[in-house]
Known about the structure:
The complex is a heterodimer.
Chain A: E1 2-10, H1 17-36, E2 40-45, E3 53-58, E4 61-66, E5 74-83, H2 87-97, E6 109-114, H3 129-132
Antiparallel strand pairs in A: 1-5, 1-6, 2-5, 3-4
Chain B: H1 2-27, H2 30-47, H3 56-82, H4 84-90, H5 107-117, H6 124-135, H7 140-146, H8 151-167, H9 180-199, H10 206-226, H11 231-244, H12 270-285, H13 291-304, H14 313-326, H15 330-344, H16 346-358, H17 366-378, H18 382-395, H19 399-413
Helix pairs in contact in B: 1-2, 1-3, 1-5, 2-3, 5-6, 6-8, 6-9, 7-8, 9-10, 9-11, 10-11, 11-12, 11-13, 12-13, 13-14, 14-15, 15-16, 16-17, 17-18, 18-19
Amino acid sequence: MRYxxxxxxxxTEGANPDEMKAVSAAHWAxxxxxxxxxxxxGADPLEPTRTATTVRIQDGRVAVTDGPFAETKEQLAGYYxxxxxxxxxxLEWAARIVPGTxxxxxxxxxxxxxxxxxxxxxxxxxxxxxxxx
Amino acid sequence: xDELRNTVDAVFRRxxxxxIAGLIRVSGSFDxxxxxxxxxxxxxxxxxxxxxxxxPAAWITAVARRKLIDYARRERTRLDKQDQLLxxxxxxxxxxxxxxxxxxxxxxxxxxxxxxxxxxxLNREAQIALTLRTLGxxxxxxxxxxxxxxxxxxxxxxxxxxxxxxxxxxxxxxxxERALPERLASVQxxxxxIFNEGYTATAGDTxxxxxxxxxxxxxxxxxxxxxxxxxxxxxxxxxxLLHDSRRDARVNAAGELVPLxxxxxxxxxxxxxxxxxxxxxxxxxxxxxxxxxxxxxxxxIHAEAESTEQTDWEQITALYRELLRMNPSPVVALNHxxxxxxxxxxxxxxxxxxxxxxxxxxxxxxxxxxxxxxxxRRIGSRESALEAYDRALALTTNAVERRYLRRRVAExxxxxxx
Lengths: 133, 418
């Protein structure tokens, strides 16, 4: 089963070099090991929330706003997608990712969510909704 | 008919934890396992009218397993009808006969179930409810009543927990060695919380509360049998047996709390004390002491003493000191101070209590003020004692404890003025 690990951390400009070193070491360790085991399905850091744009539908029209979905103290900073046998394995990896969330002297956290796997129904099995539209 | 119902209920209460643990393993689903077991018990209510099977638990398991096969077939038919294509991509492992092995239950199944129910990915309330529901065989209304929560809230809690187990793939396994200490601690905490809920709160349905204590003891017994090399399992079981041995003495006929020194020790349950003492000794011989073992050892010293005066307070003080080293909490420090007061002189203990109070951490803890009041009363400082009792009363919500404190206040008012 695939699990997504969402990294939440404080956003600070101008990182401390020692901290940066430790953070990237933690991530490289996890990425190397998960690649070796063939369970890494994806992992990326995200640009800070000042680069975020949020799109909604308001009154039937697309509304674009500057900024993240929610202003919170900790923000989504990156993610991993790992193939794990169960939640326990996913939690073990998450624990190894946590040191890679340190920012401005504070520790961030990792939210672990199972990915809801969906199969696209075969076209002949179900008439397409879009065809009618 | 009533007699049969009682028999079936008794089998349910005694065996359902074991039965459902095996059914969850073969079906991979809490809900299916529960449904199959309920169905089997419903059938038993009819079939057993002609006589009880030799092994009721095996009978129920066999019927429930057949039910699981029926469900799998039913599901397959439903899927067949609904969408042939969708089904084929499913290549169902769950719909294939999952009921291959004839063996009815591994002792490990219950262990798996305990660890899954107490998994740290579930919140504490859910862990407790799920443990009581599946392993304890308590009904949802019973658990709701015991924890004074509305039934729909509790039902919702259970549904959510089971859904998370399923959707997040919380494993149905005994954790590996490296994760074991932390996971086992979570299981022990849940069991002890269940016990305390039954033991300390005296409000509500006494019968249900009694059942909670008994259930916690049953769970700890299972845990001790399945993992006998973990001394804290034995310590926890011993601790609860020893506390529970005083159940008839600690509240009087008027429903008032009776402090240890005024309890009629002849009503303590000797057999439970003996078992508790044996367990503590066995646990301590493993030379891996832990908080449950130490608390059980303290409780054992009380249990074996003929009176408060003849209690080995020195030994109790030493055990509290050790406990404090492992678990440096202000509450443990308070207990230590009281032990010093009883063994080494009230003034010495009171000095420790006051020093603890200076940190302010215990200021809103009712037992701190109650303990202090009690020591002040013992050295005859009536005014200070009354003040402390007032503060304790202001912080105490439990009706039985309040009655006890008020009785002490009344006694102090009746003292001849000095």
